[in-house]
Amino acid sequence: MSALARRAAAILWKDILSETRTRQGFTAMLSFAALVLFMFGFAIGVDNDLLGRLAGGLLWVAIVFTGTLSLGRTFQNEELAGGTHLLRLYPGDVRAIYLGKLAGNLVVLAALEVVLFPAAAILYRVDFAAQAGPLLLVAALGTFGFSVIGTFFSALTVHLRARELLLPLLLFPALVPVVLGSVGATEAFLAGDPLGRAGGWLRLLASYDVILFVVCVWIFPVVLEE
Fold first, then answer.
1. Which three-class secondary structure state does DSSP give residue 193?
2. Number of CB atoms found within 10 A of residue 98's CB
3. Are 92 and 18 in contact (CB under 8 A)?
4. Which class for 65: exposed (0-12), middle (13-18), buried (19 or more C-beta within 10 A)?
5. What tens digit of pLDDT does each residue of 10-30 get?
6. What's the domain count of the chain?
7. Is there a contact between 198 and 189 (Cβ–Cβ < 8 Å)?
8. What tens digit of pLDDT does each residue of 73-89 get?
């Protein structure tokens, strides 16, 4: 394992230990996500056909809203400990900080989705299990893109007073291709059209994820110095 990977793994492990000690943040996110899913279902009503058609979009909107709460806490521990200037003193390649924080967000979002997908299947009466494999691929690509850009903007706004407001303002426009691709692919798979529209959405997701990852890793040291 390279030095960069070891440092990133150490940061990931530190964040996991910190989260497991309290668990309050994750519990609050689960409660918020469940409330969002329930409110969407309540607003649409008892039209099962309409719920089935909109299930993919409603699910990903809930993931984005709830995941944004998690992303806002990415650098919270460092900020409370004395500010982000401590991160600049980190020995070695500072990209390890980004990679470790990115991995931490991936773990949190994956754990969140393990609960949200079954919950949405029950609330919206949709059989996600029939397309479990393809939907797992969509979830992986969508979650990765969301975490990549979210971790980056969390670092960019952490030192600002209005970071709770600025993070969504910066994040949501950049997430448009990720959300469109995730929703489009999910709806296509649920409709039984895996070789048609779903393929195009998956290519969009994969391409955008790669571009985001390369750009964010490349310019993260500059962001950290600001």
1. coil
2. 23
3. no
4. middle
5. 888 887 887 777 666 778 888
6. 1
7. yes
8. 777 766 665 555 666 66
Q: In terms of Cα–Cα distance, which of 18, 187, 29, 8 is closest to 110? A: 29
Task: Strands of 47-157 (E only): list them.
Answer: none
Amino acid at the residue 1: M
The DSSP annotation for 154-189 comes to: HHHHTTSTTHHHHHHHHHHHHTHHHHHHHHHHHHHH
Domain containing residue 55: 3-225
Q: What is the pLDDT of residues 162-180, one digit of tens each?
A: 777 888 889 999 999 999 9
Largest CA distance in the chain: 57
Query: Are the C-beta atoms of 94 and 87 separated by less than 8 Å?
Result: yes
How many residues comprise the chain?
Answer: 226
Separation between Cα atoms, residue 72 and residue 13, nearest integer Å: 19
Structure tokens at 180: 């469109």
Please state whether 83 falls in left (phi above 0), alpha (psi between -120 and 50) or beta.
left
Report which DSSP code applies to 131: G
**Which pair of structure tokens corresponds to residue 145?**
């893109």
Encoded amino acid at 89, one letter? L
